[in-house]
């Protein structure tokens, strides 16, 4: 019963927030990994996609009472509770990070109220749905309607930027240009699927796949596994897949290009037309 109540409350919030917004294009649905294609536009298949479309990059929620927290790509923190109908939106403050643990803390003080948010990278079982989310979240909130400070505990996850959910052709790897003439079939590419949290790819001769995890201002790739055909461009394929496998990157989106960068590698992709 608690789960249905929370989903109903969240659906009301989503309806209220999206009613006044222009329609957005849903993340394209990922297809088979046989080659580049233009994914069909579909309705968001799950609540996480609906949140991504509204620009939410991190979401947390809890119960007793039901509450939600959103970090948006518009540099805002949005906190809501169901019981009292509180809603507090504040500019996203600079995060402070604990030196001895993967813990972020945001503290915002405005005339409308005060928020202190702690996000710890610690698995958090959601008591209502049974899903284990990767972050444990606590919120201390004080609003004009509720001047006494209250504490809320729950679970959260990063959702990633919905613009990443697409097909990306490799253009440069560590400053070296990648051209179609280097390969017998076609240029290497990635297909990033945020809905299924997976990546499908083609490295010039072989297909591969692995897990994909959105993180704060970045992406983490799991181990890449795929076919093992003998190909003339085998050395390049090994370099490309090794650059991705098990690695975390910051990313930048600009002029239809996606740049993935870490301390070792820089990969530049162009969005398929």
Automatic annotation (TrEMBL):
<keyword id="KW-0346">Stress response</keyword>
<protein>
    <submittedName>
        <fullName>Heat shock protein HslJ</fullName>
    </submittedName>
</protein>
<feature type="compositionally biased region" description="Low complexity">
    <location>
        <begin position="26"/>
        <end position="36"/>
    </location>
</feature>
<dbReference type="InterPro" id="IPR005184">
    <property type="entry name" value="DUF306_Meta_HslJ"/>
</dbReference>
<feature type="domain" description="DUF306">
    <location>
        <begin position="166"/>
        <end position="268"/>
    </location>
</feature>
<dbReference type="InterPro" id="IPR038670">
    <property type="entry name" value="HslJ-like_sf"/>
</dbReference>
<keyword id="KW-0732">Signal</keyword>
<dbReference type="Pfam" id="PF03724">
    <property type="entry name" value="META"/>
</dbReference>
<dbReference type="InterPro" id="IPR053147">
    <property type="entry name" value="Hsp_HslJ-like"/>
</dbReference>
<feature type="signal peptide">
    <location>
        <begin position="1"/>
        <end position="19"/>
    </location>
</feature>
<feature type="region of interest" description="Disordered">
    <location>
        <begin position="23"/>
        <end position="46"/>
    </location>
</feature>
